[in-house]
Amino acid sequence: YCGMVAIVGRPNVGKSTLLNKLLGQKISITSKKPQTTRHRIMGIHTVAERQVVFIDTPGLHMEEKRAINRLMNRAAASSLAEVSLVVFVVDGMTWTEDDDLVLRKLQSRDDGRKTVLAVNKVDNIKNKEELFPYLEALSKKFPFDEILPISATKGTNVQRILDMSIESL
Ligand code: GDP
Ligand code: MG
Questions:
Q1: Which residues bind GTP (predicted)?
Q2: What does pTM read for this prediction?
């Protein structure tokens, strides 16, 4: 089996960090500066006979006023059509308008594929109980197949994303 998994989300939520962690090696560029990843970056993960190609997909949040943004949006959207799982990464406790833009793109291309919401940077949250009402609010935005609090830097729940990726093939 082989297939593709897309990692989507607005800039700076930790997509590249997650991709690096998923692959166990640094291949994508991470930065405090938003939009370091100007192109799709792929990585392959192999388990037994199964191979997952992860695609780091920037650009889905962009306003379509500029031609380059329209192009990046189109590249991101067309790759979504071919994936077996979407990992939608958001920042723990901070939901912005750009997140809504990404969600709308996902909704407009919802052809039954699985979508997991990865709520990242939970290592930053001191009082973990604060997370529950936030996660519950997020569960009402979209019928996510799973909502997973993660830490891409610490690796928390990253294995679960790998397992879901392999299972989705
Ligand atoms: P991208 O724009 O979505 O690809 O985001 P990056 O992976 O480049 O990460 C943006 C910033 O968030 C970097 O400074 C990362 O070190 C930081 N970051 C990413 N994941 C985590 C996490 O799980 N916890 C914390 N505390 N910071 C993170
Ligand atoms: Mg990036």
A1: 9-16, 56-60, 120-123
A2: 0.89
